[in-house]
Amino acid sequence: MALKKGREQATLKEYNAALERAAEAPPPLAVAAGECEFLRAHALSRLRDAWTARFPDGDAVTLRGAGEARQPGLSDLTAELSGGSLFARDKLVIVRQAERVLFPAGGKSAGDAAAASAREKAFLDRIAHPSPRTWLVLETAQLPGNRTLGKAIAAGASVIPCPLPAQRELPAFLAARAGEAGRRIEPQAAELLIRAHGADPGALAREVDKLALFAPEGAAIDVPSVETFLTGTIEFDIFQFTNAVEAKDRREAVRYARRIAGQGTRDQKGRREDGGKSAHKVLFMLSSSAELLLRAGTARAAGRGAEDFSAAAGLSPWRGEKLYAAAAKFSLRELRRMVECAAEQMRRSHDTGGDAALSLELMAVRFTGGLAEGTF
């Protein structure tokens, strides 16, 4: 499979198919390339396990493009791929962050350029005529298609695309992850995890792994088990808050808005944020939900079904049907006003430093029909 170009986006289905082919019959050269770090790591683990099962007495070597006292270069990689003696053992060479090894920075002089060209030529000759007992797997975020070396690798490799999963693909991703652990996850439970943790495949996979570990033998991962794990967390409160808004349950919406403002969230480094920052994040989520509800309401008014709406919005069937049903509780006028209010409160909170926690509570009341038109 060639690397996709421009706006073409590989899918999880293509990732799984390419990975299974490479694991079933290890190719001389495989490349796990794409934006999703989790999928790249998953592919390396799967390929290494498959290769080790096939060649239990072989050697597996890992080179890292960063984090080592001495960064390996292209000549080091070429040497690792050398077939050695007639009695050499089978060898798997894995290169992490391969772009740093293949395309190192620097080398401006004519002498450096000539040396780099010689190293590239030696490496290309090695992968064009691989040893029958050596396999190479490259892991990289991007394989430059405008470089001679990148083009040659892509042309001769078994490429495993590692894209960031689309929202609609996440339920299937979680089902596959649960299957790897010998479990089944119910669609509603998968959606709850997705809404709680977003589209981060690494975080989602870790949650499924934990749930699979603690679930009773033979039991599926269901909504109650997910709720047990999430209860008391900001993710669960956010989930309950958006559910209450979509159900027009004013009391619950206000209760969870206050909990969110008081609890706060953690930033990407795990540090506790104040409630205002937490509320601002939920304002953004609520704005997105309002836009989806308006799209669902417009679809209903046009006579389109939940399935058509889900496909057009890029949502999973379960989430799309839920929004489609929730939209029936609002008039189109209410939904349009909801979107306008959300956008206005986002602007105030962002541009003027307005009280995001107060805005969140007022929006909860307004969206559930508790304030007269024109309050915002």
Walk me through this protein's architecture:
- The structure is a single chain.
- The chain is built from 17 helices and five strands.
- With 376 residues, it is of the alpha/beta class.
- It has three domains: 150 residues, Rossmann fold (3-Layer(aba) Sandwich), CATH 3.40.50; 64 residues, Helicase, Ruva Protein, domain 3; 134 residues, Zinc Finger, Delta Prime, domain 3 (Up-down Bundle), CATH 1.20.272.
- It has a five-stranded parallel sheet, with helices on both faces.
- Helix 5 packs parallel to helix 6 and helix 8 packs parallel to helix 10.
- The relative contact order is 0.09.
Average pLDDT: 79
Q: Give the helix/strand class.
A: alpha/beta
Cα-to-Cα separation, first versus last residue: 53 Å
Low-confidence stretches: 264-275, 371-376
The main sheet comes to: 5 strands, parallel
* CATH class type of the largest domain: Alpha Beta
What percentage of residues falls in helices of 4 or more residues?
A: 55-70%
What percent of residues are in strands? 5-15%
